[in-house]
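Below is the record:
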Amino acid sequence: MRKFWLLFSQTVTVLLAVFFVVATLKPQWLNRPALGNAVSLIEAPVSGDPLPAPAAGSFAAAAKVASAAVVSINTSKAAARNPNMDDPWFRFFFGDQGGSTEPQVGLGSGVIVSPNGYILTNNHVVEGADDIEVILNDTRKAKAKIIGTDPETDLAILKIELDKLPIIVLGSSDTLQVGDPVLAIGNPFGVGQTVTSGIVSALGRNQLGINTFENFIQTDAAINPGNSGGALVDTQGRLLGINTAIYSRSGGSMGIGFAIPVSTARQVLESIVKDGQVTRGWIGVEPQDLVPELAETFGIKARSGVIITGVLQNGPAAQAGILPGDVITEVGGKPVRTTTELLSAVAALKPGVSAPLVVLRKDKKTDLAVVPGTRQRPKIRR
């Protein structure tokens, strides 16, 4: 019996040893996957399968949607030549003072807003350029032509001729609130397309001395040189504004950037594409912010609105019955509290079409109707 148990135990030991060897080296003999091939139990993703859900709080989807429609813009301008270089006596006494022969180059960004190839960007990005090249995020390149510019808002419309263009969805800047998350997309310093994130820091920024019509969205999303003309988008990838300027003492981002609201950009885009230029309203008044000193001088108790200190004779405002000392509180149904808001509200009126005004005259509310004229376009300085 003892010999039998000894033989049995040796047999079991040998069989277990063989099992472990086979399980390790030839697992397929046992219909088991090898340890090193355990990943084969997971179905590998194939083209067209949905990607894994982004991490909570990720802006990956918005960045992917919007980035495709954001382009880089390279501009060049022929070097200025000294006109005296044609005079042999000038060359004899002063030598080669013709200046650099190298063209001036510039860098910016833009946003494709139409399948027809229209691109929104800043006027200062393309101003004076002799050659404009647009580079898409998919690496395609195209020459662009300027359809129109609006220096008073620092906006410009370009057009390229390419097929199957990605376009951005226009959002609503009117519903923005301070604290809303936003993304800034552009090509800072020419390093390549870059996405930065932040929040809306303030709304309605004006009196910055950047443009004639200022109603900026302020954000702390990093905006740097080269970002001008790029997109400010919401967390759905919808366009909220065109990145335009930064406040900086170093030349780089300091957390204070400004974007033109998409409501303004849309108006400029539609006007330029339809009429070739932007037409704005004008009523012929001299407005000032209503400060306590002026209110006391004119004997006004109102504390909100814009006081009119002068009215152009026979101008639209004079014909509507507006008098010096009147306080305008509404234009076209929109309240106005500052001269900047009044200027923007009047400019938005359609010339030749009657619009309602609300004024306070000696603290008595009066409803008037004004037929605005056409605001003269500013002369371009060369």
Remarks:
- Residues 173-275 form a domain with the Thrombin, subunit H fold (CATH 2.40.10.10).
- The CA atoms of residues 167 and 237 lie 11 Å apart.
- Residues 32-49 have pLDDT under 50 and may be disordered.
- DSSP finds eight helices and 21 strands in the chain.
